[in-house]
Design a protein that fits this description.
The chain is an alpha/beta fold and 320 residues long. 45% of the residues lie in helices and 18% in strands.
């Protein structure tokens, strides 16, 4: 049975030194062509296979997303063009490069496929050297673009995501939750009286404090799908996909404890004489007519209530 593979033991590829091999999803309903493409790629990449458009969409949207999709055009039910169209409609999958594989050697078909968002077009019969060369070039480009994207979404002081990364990820997970029918939770976080800390201890100490708090917050959100971001100044946010209110509250309370455990002195704080945080929590089961902006607003209102109640606490507010 065809399945995921890893580079062959004993093989050497300088492109893979210090890197995880890229994951390639091969989609084709013709067993012979599918087997030929897998054999051409399995020594260099992790290869996943799908024999239908529906299965391809499931794998592309799953937790272990492919870095590149080789997609046959002519398939029953959902053809490759429709699969590509759906991939490019979804925020979670639109950035995955698609190479069409087709028996249709026609300039109009190729133009149509590229117009849907594909990056390349390979004509059957399958020629393994051509497949390997095209895939290698596009994987290298994808990794360069991914690196650039990470550089623009990471806060360099704390090493966690910045506001841009937060907004992009929240948009992706919101649409995923609408599609899957799962809850999503959000935590808004502020360091209490941080301006007074900066004024008293100086900005270098403030930077070290921000980095320490960011690390503590990240250690509470342990799943690969959880995201903690510095949204500006002393403001942080945490996105918790597939998390109900009880789960979100538990994580927020753990964040409160871990920041307290840092025991960073703050003589100018009226809240216990050390660095503390206030947190606002909300959860929602997104509907197509609901708004991600309202989710953010609700978490911010909960955070405001936590501050008004004396800070150094968690307040949960129901999404309305």
């Amino acid at each position: 049975m065809l399945g995921s593979t890893t580079p062959a033991i004993g093989s050497f590829d300088p492109d893979l030194v210090g890197k995880e091999p890229a994951t390639i999803l091969v989609v084709d309903d013709v067993p012979g062509d599918l087997r030929l493409m897998v054999e051409a790629l399995k020594d260099r990449y992790r290869v996943k296979v799908a024999t239908s458009g529906t299965r391809a969409l499931e794998l592309a949207a799953g937790p272990d997303q492919p870095d590149l999709i080789l997609l046959d055009v002519v398939m029953p039910e959902l053809d490759g063009y429709e699969v590509c169209r759906r991939l490019k409609e979804e925020p979670a999958t639109r950035s995955i490069p698609v190479i069409f594989i087709s028996v249709q050697d026609d300039i109009h078909d190729e133009a149509f496929g590229l117009g849907l968002g594909a990056i390349d077009y390979i004509i059957k019969p399958i020629r393994p050297p051509i497949v390997r060369a095209r895939v290698r070039n596009h994987v290298a480009l994808k990794r360069s673009l991914d690196l650039l994207a990470r550089m623009t979404t990471i806060d360099h002081l704390t090493g966690i995501h910045n506001r841009r990364g937060f907004d992009e990820y929240l948009n992706v997970e919101w649409h995923r939750a609408v599609r899957t029918g799962e809850q999503i939770s959000l935590i808004a976080i502020d360091i209490d009286h941080f301006k007074a800390y900066n004024d008293h201890y100086g900005h270098p100490s403030g930077d070290r404090c921000l980095a320490a708090v960011a690390s503590a917050l990240r250690s509470s959100a342990t799943r690969l799908t959880d995201l903690v971001a510095r949204c500006g100044g002393e403001e942080f946010g945490c996105i918790l996909p597939a998390t109900d209110p009880d789960g979100a509250l538990s994580i927020a309370e753990d964040m409160l404890r871990k920041v307290a455990d840092l025991a960073i002195a703050h003589e100018r704080s009226p809240v216990g004489g050390q660095i503390s945080i206030s947190l606002g929590v909300t959860s929602v089961l997104p509907q197509p007519d609901s708004s991600v902006a309202r989710l953010v607003e609700t978490a911010d209102r909960a955070l405001y209530e936590a501050k008004m109640a004396g800070r150094n606490r968690v307040i949960v507010r129901q999404f309305d």
